[in-house]
Write a structure and sequence with these properties.
Length: about 650
C-alpha cells in the first residue's frame, strides 16, 4: 500500500545533498473492500509502538513514484537513524543521489517544485471500528514503512517537504492548516486539548465521535483545499473535484456530504469505466492499449517477432512488466483499485471475474489477441512441401462435394455457317469429399498469469499453429502414401491406371523417361490426349534425396548422349512423410488436376475465436480448422516403388 507525504524544501542541506520530509500524518483515506463489497476509511496509527521504523532507519530506498522494478528508479535513500514518529507525523531526512540520470528529478525536489512524497507500507494488524450509520474505520495499529517515493499527486496532503522555518517556504500554512483541521476532526469533542493519549485505547474510542465535530461545518462549507485533498486521495479526477468545489460554493457541504459524493462517484466509475475515444488510424485508446500489451508479450517471448517501428515504440512501455504487473496496470487504468487484492483475486479481476460474474475484459482480449497472432503466425510460417502440387479451394458447407476434372471437359466441335452450337456435358470424376473439423483449445488462466508463464505467448501457440499446418500436410501426403481407392473402385496407383511402374527401379535417366512417357500418353475418358499432363515435380523421401539430386543435376557434356534432359525440367520435393525407396512424379496443378485442398468458405485457413471461461477461471482461445483433401484425377501422378 502507498500513502502520500511531503518534502520540506527549505530544509535542504547542500553539504550532504539531503532534505527533510514528512512521510505521513496518518490521514484518513477512503478505501474499497472487494471481499466485503463496501467502502471504509483507513487510518494509520501514529501511537507509540504502532509503526515499525527498522527498515527506514536502516537506510530504506527513496524511489521515483514507487517504481521498484530496477535500480534506475532509486533516487536516494533514508539517512540511517533519521526516521521518527511524533507530534502526529512521521519525519525523516533523505539523501538524494548525485548521479546524472536523476539530476533533473533532484533539482526539482531541491527547488521545491516537486514536494510530494508517498510512503509504501505493509500493514501487520488492523483494528476495525464500527459506528451505526457511519462507514467503518480500519485503523492500522501495527504497520511498517517499506520505502519512500517522490510522486506527482499525494494521498496524504499533510505529508510533504519540510521547511526549516514553518513561517517560510512554499505554502506551509495551507498544508499545516489541513493537517490541523484533520486533527480537530478526529477529537472526541471540540476542545483545545491536543495532549497525546496515554494509551491506544482512548485514541480508538475517539474515532466514533468524529461525526458530531463535522456537523458545524455545514453552515460555512468545506474549503476548496480540503476538497482537492480528499479527491486526490480517492482518485476521482480533477474535473470531479472542480464540480464538488462549485457545488460546495452554491450549497455548503459537510465532510459527510463530501465523502458520500466521492463514494457515489467511485461506485459509478468502477461499475462502468468511461471510454475515451481518439479519432485516428489506431482507433480508440483502449484498442491501442490492448495492441501494445499484446505486442509487448510477443516481443518479450520472442525478441525477433516482427513489429513495425510504431508498434515496437508503443509496446516498449510494457516489455519489462510481468503478467501480474500488467494486470494491476490494466485495473488501475480502468478505474478499479487493486489495493488489498490477493494475487488470485487480482488476476481474476483483470481477466473479467468480478463480483461473482464474468464481464468483458480488455486485458483478457489483449492476451488472447497476442496468443491468436502467435498461433496464426506459426501456422502461416510452417513449411508445407505439398504447396506446389495442390490446388486450393473452398466449400460452402460440410456436405460431400463432387469433383469435375479438367480432363473431362467436352471437345470443341466445328460449327458450320448458320448452324447451331451444340451442348457438351461436363461429367464429374466420380470422386467426392467433405470437410471435417479439427480443433483444440488454449486456456489463459489466473494461475498462468500469477506464474508469469511466458510459454503462453511463445512455445505453446507456436506449436499450436505448426500442428495445424502439419495436419494439412498429413491429409495431403496421406493421399499419396495410403494409395486410396478412386471412384472407379481401383486404387490410385495401379497398373490399370497406367501410373504405376511394373517393377521398382532407382531414379535414373531411363526410369524418369519411362515415367514421363506414361504420363504423356494418358488419355481422357473420351479417348483424347491430355496436353497439360506432363511431369513437373519429382517427389521423394529422405532416403532418395541425394539420388534425386544427382539425377536432376546439370552436367557439362561433350556428347549429346550424355546430356541430362531432366535438369531444370523437374523440381525436386523432399517430404519426410514419404518413407522407403518409392518416388513419384506430379503434374503442375495449374495445368492438370492433382490434389484439391479445401477450407470452409469464409474461414480459409486456421480460424481462431476467444470465449470467457466457465469451466475454468480464465479465457479460452479455440483454434479450428475446417479442411478436406482429395485426389481429383489419377492421371496427374506416377509412382515407382523404387529400388
Amino acid at each position: 500500500m502507498m500513502r502520500a507525504a511531503e518534502t520540506r524544501p527549505a530544509s535542504y542541506r547542500e553539504e550532504d545533498n539531503s532534505i527533510e520530509i514528512v512521510w505521513t500524518t496518518g490521514a484518513r483515506v477512503l478505501r474499497f473492500d472487494w471481499w466485503d463489497d463496501e467502502y471504509y476509511f483507513e487510518e494509520l496509527s501514529l501511537d507509540d509502538g504502532a509503526v515499525r521504523l527498522e527498515r527506514l532507519n536502516a537506510g530504506a530506498p527513496l524511489l521515483d513514484s514507487h517504481i521498484s522494478r530496477g535500480l534506475a528508479s532509486v533516487i536516494g535513500s533514508v539517512v540511517p537513524g533519521s526516521a521518527s514518529v511524533g507530534n502526529g507525523e512521521g519525519t525523516a531526512r533523505v539523501r538524494l543521489a548525485s548521479t546524472p540520470d536523476v539530476a533533473d528529478s533532484v533539482a526539482k525536489i531541491r527547488d521545491g517544485i516537486v514536494r510530494n512524497v508517498s510512503v509504501g507500507y505493509s500493514v501487520h494488524s488492523f483494528t476495525r471500528i464500527e459506528n451505526e450509520g457511519e462507514r467503518p474505520i480500519m485503523r492500522a495499529t501495527d504497520w511498517e514503512p517499506m520505502e519512500l517515493s517522490f510522486v506527482a499527486i499525494p494521498a496524504d496532503a499533510g505529508a510533504q517537504s519540510r521547511s526549516a522555518d514553518p513561517a517560510q517556504g512554499g505554502n506551509p500554512c495551507i498544508i499545516r492548516g489541513a493537517a490541523a483541521t484533520r486533527k480537530e476532526h478526529e477529537m472526541p469533542e471540540p476542545t483545545p486539548s491536543v495532549a497525546p493519549a496515554p494509551a491506544p485505547t482512548p485514541a480508538l474510542a475517539a474515532a466514533p465521535a468524529a461525526e458530531p465535530t463535522l456537523q458545524p461545518q455545514r453552515a460555512e462549507g468545506i474549503s476548496a483545499t480540503r476538497i482537492r485533498s480528499i479527491c486526490s486521495r480517492s482518485d476521482v479526477g480533477d474535473s470531479f473535484a472542480l464540480d464538488l468545489i462549485a457545488r460546495n460554493e452554491a450549497t455548503p457541504m459537510s465532510e459527510a456530504d463530501l465523502t458520500d459524493a466521492i463514494a457515489t462517484q467511485l461506485e459509478s466509475t468502477r461499475a462502468r469505466p468511461a471510454l475515451r475515444i481518439e479519432v485516428g488510424a489506431t482507433g480508440t485508446e483502449e484498442e491501442s492499449h490492448q495492441r501494445a500489451i499484446g505486442d509487448a508479450m510477443l516481443v518479450r517471448s520472442d525478441p525477433m517477432f516482427n513489429l513495425t517501428p510504431e508498434q515496437a515504440s508503443a509496446a516498449r512501455e510494457f516489455r519489462g512488466l510481468t503478467l501480474m504487473e500488467l494486470a494491476r496496470d490494466y485495473l488501475e487504468r480502468s478505474g478499479i483499485s487493486a489495493r488489498g487484492m490477493g494475487r488470485l483475486e487480482l488476476a481474476g479481476a483483470a481477466l473479467g471475474f468480478r463480483n461473482g460474474a464474468m464481464v468483458t475484459s480488455d486485458f483478457a482480449n489483449a492476451l488472447s489477441s497476442a496468443v491468436n497472432r502467435r498461433v496464426r503466425s506459426a501456422y502461416e510460417a510452417a513449411p508445407q512441401t505439398f504447396a506446389p502440387i495442390v490446388s486450393r479451394g473452398t466449400l460452402p458447407d460440410f456436405k460431400p462435394a463432387s469433383i469435375v476434372g479438367l480432363g473431362d471437359a467436352p471437345q470443341l466441335q466445328l460449327v458450320l455457317e448458320n448452324a447451331e452450337f451444340t451442348y457438351g456435358a461436363l461429367s464429374d470424376t466420380g470422386m467426392s469429399y467433405a470437410l471435417k473439423t479439427y480443433g483444440k483449445i488454449i486456456a489463459i488462466t489466473r494461475q498462468a498469469i500469477i506464474n508469469d508463464d511466458k510459454s503462453l505467448f511463445s512455445r505453446i501457440p507456436t506449436q499450436f499453429g505448426r500442428k495445424a499446418a502439419d495436419l494439412e500436410s498429413d491429409l495431403v501426403w496421406g493421399m499419396l502414401t495410403s494409395n486410396p481407392v478412386m471412384a472407379d473402385s481401383i486404387a490410385l496407383f495401379h497398373a490399370s491406371h497406367g501410373n504405376l511402374a511394373g517393377s521398382g527401379s532407382a531414379i535414373s535417366l531411363s526410369a524418369l523417361a519411362a515415367a514421363e512417357q506414361a504420363m504423356l500418353t494418358q488419355t481422357s475418358p473420351e479417348g483424347n490426349y491430355i496436353s497439360g499432363n506432363r511431369p513437373a515435380y519429382l517427389i521423394v523421401g529422405p532416403a532418395k534425396k541425394v539420388e534425386a539430386q544427382q539425377a536432376l543435376a546439370a552436367v557439362v557434356a561433350n556428347d549429346t548422349q550424355k546430356v541430362n534432359i531432366f535438369a531444370g525440367a523437374l523440381q525436386l520435393i523432399v517430404e519426410p512423410r514419404i518413407t522407403g525407396n518409392q518416388w513419384y512424379l506430379s503434374a503442375d496443378p495449374a495445368a492438370f488436376d492433382t490434389i484439391e485442398l479445401s477450407h470452409l468458405d469464409g474461414q480459409e485457413g486456421l480460424y481462431l475465436e476467444t470465449q470467457n471461461g466457465f469451466d475454468i477461471d480464465g479465457v479460452k482461445t479455440k483454434a479450428r480448422l475446417d479442411v478436406g483433401a482429395a485426389v481429383i484425377d489419377h492421371r496427374g501422378f506416377y509412382k515407382n516403388p523404387g529400388a
